[in-house]
Amino acid sequence: MSKDRQSIGRLLIDPPTEGALNMAIDAAILASAAPGDPFTLRFYRWCEPTLSLGYFQSIADRAKHDPSRTLPVVRRATGGGAIIHHHELTYSLMVPTHLDPGGIGSSPQWYRLVHLGVIAALASCSIRAHSFSDDPRPFGHKGTGEPFLCFQRRNGDDLIVSGYKVMGSAQRRGAGGLLQHGSLLLETSPYAPELPGLRELCEWPATKRDAQLKAETIQDAIAAELGHRLGVSWTTGACSDRERQHAQAETRIRFASSKWTQRR
Known about the structure:
The chain has 8 helices and 11 strands. An 8-stranded mixed sheet has the order 7-8-9-10-6-2-1-11, with helices on both faces. Strands 4-3-5 form a 3-stranded mixed sheet, covered by helices on one side. The longest helix has 18 residues, at 107-124. It is an alpha/beta fold.
C-alpha cells in the first residue's frame, strides 16, 4: 500500500438503527478487513434505548438492574459491563493488521491513543476529562463483585469527568485487524438514572451546554483529533457491498438470535 493511500481513512457516520444491526456492522467491518485497507472510524446511534451485554455477562444478571429491565437487549462480541445505549455516542475504530505492527501486544496502545484523542477533543469543547489512571480515586461502588454496568466499572484508560466515568472501550481482534468500540455518555438516561453524563457534569449555562454537547459537535471534534494522531485524512464513505451482506448475515445468525443473546 502506497504512503499516500495510508494517509486516507474511511469515516462512517451511520443513522440510528437497532442494536443487533449496529453490532453486526462492527463485526462485518472487522471480518472484511483485508491487506491495504485504511483505518475505518465509525460513529453510530441507536434507534431505541437498548441494553448491550458484554460477551461474558449472564443474561440473568440484567435482573440486577431494575431501571433497564424493559429495554431490548443485544449481546456484544466484546467483553466488559452492560451499557445503556440511550443518550450516548458510540464509536468504533478498525485498525487493519498492516497498520498495527505491534500485533496483539499493542492492543493497550489503541485504548490509550483513542482515549487521549477523546480527551483532547472534549477539551476543544471546554470539557475537562482525564484517564482514571491519572487520578484513581475510589468511586463509591457499593456491593460485592463486578458492577453490572460498564460505567460503574473502572480501569486505567477509562475517561473520567468530575469523578464519574463517561467513556469506556472494548476490543476484538480478527484475522484482518483489530476493532475497538466504545461509548461516550452524553446525558443521564431514565433507564440508568445513577449515571450522570457530560450534560450533568459540566457546570455551564444551558445555552452553552446545548451548543457544545451536541453529538455531531463532539463526533466531529473526535474525528479531527484522531485523524491528527493517526496521521490520516478522513473521507466520508459507506459500508461496502461485502460488509453490508456480511452484516445482514451476522444480524440473522448471531446478534438478533436468542441463542446468541442467551448463551450465558
